[in-house]
Amino acid sequence: MVHRFGTRLAMALTKGLVELMSGQVIIGSLPKRGSLLFLTVPVRVLSYEDFLRLQDKHAESMKRSLPPSRELKILIVDDNPFNRNITQKLVSSLGHSATTATDGVESVNVCEKDHFDLIFMDLAMPRMDGYHAARAIRQGPNSSAIIVALTASTESETSARCHEAGMDGCISKPVSRSLLNNTITAYKGRFSTST
Q1: Residue 37 is inside which H or E element, if any?
Q2: Which of 9, 62, 116, 120 has the smallest count of CB within 10 Å of its CB?
C-alpha cells in the first residue's frame, strides 16, 4: 500500500511540475507489462552568447545582494574554455577578481608575475597537470595561496594525491555558485586581511 501511495504522489508531483512548465504528461500502461511515461516540455535552446548574457545579468543581481567583504584575487586554471568561463563568471558574481589560465604551465607563469589568494586548479590538463602545477606554485611567490582542485573524478585516492601535491582541498565538478562560495568561506580565516 505504501508503494502505491508513493507512486501516486510522485506522479502527482511530476504532473504538477511539468504543467507549471507548460508541458504535458502522457501515461500508457499494459497489465503485467508495465507503464510508459512520456513528458513533453517546450524549451528554447540558447546560443552560447545568450547564455553568457543571462549569466552576466544574474551575476550582477547576485552581486548587489551580497554583503560587502574583501575582494579576493582568484586564479582559475582549466583547459576547458566553457568550464573556465563559467567558473570565472561565478567567482566574479561573488565579488572577487578572477584571472584565468589554460593549463598548468600557464598557471605557473601567471603565479610568477602576480599574487593570488586562492587558486582553483583543474587536475587533468595538457602540458602540465594540476598536481605538477601545484607543486611548482608552492616553490614560487604564491607558496601560501590556497589551492583547491577541481575534479570530475570520484576516486577516493584523488583527494590524497591532491594533498600530497600541496593542495589545500578538492571539490567536484560541475561547480556551482554555492559550492564556490562555500569553499571560499571555508578558507576565509586563511586569507590575509590586506588587499
Answers
A1: strand 34-40
A2: 9
Phi-psi region of 46 (alpha: psi -120 to 50; beta: other; left: phi over 0): beta
Radius of gyration over every alpha carbon of the chain, rounded to an integer in angstroms: 22
The contacts of residue 55 (CB under 8 Å, 6+ apart) are 86, 89, 93
What pTM value is reported for the model? 0.65
Q: Where are the domains of the chain?
A: 8-40, 68-190
CATH for the stretch 68-190: 3.40.50.2300
**Residue 115: partners with Cβ closer than 8 Å, 6 or more residues away:** 73, 141, 142, 145
Q: Which of 110, 123, 97 is nearest to 191 (CA)?
A: 97
Q: How far apart are CA 134 and CA 139, in angstroms?
A: 9
**Local confidence pLDDT in tens for the 195 residues of the chain:** 334 444 566 677 777 778 888 888 887 777 888 777 788 888 878 787 877 777 777 666 655 544 446 789 999 999 999 889 999 999 998 889 999 999 999 999 999 999 999 999 999 898 999 999 999 999 999 889 999 999 887 677 888 888 899 999 898 888 888 889 888 888 877 776 544
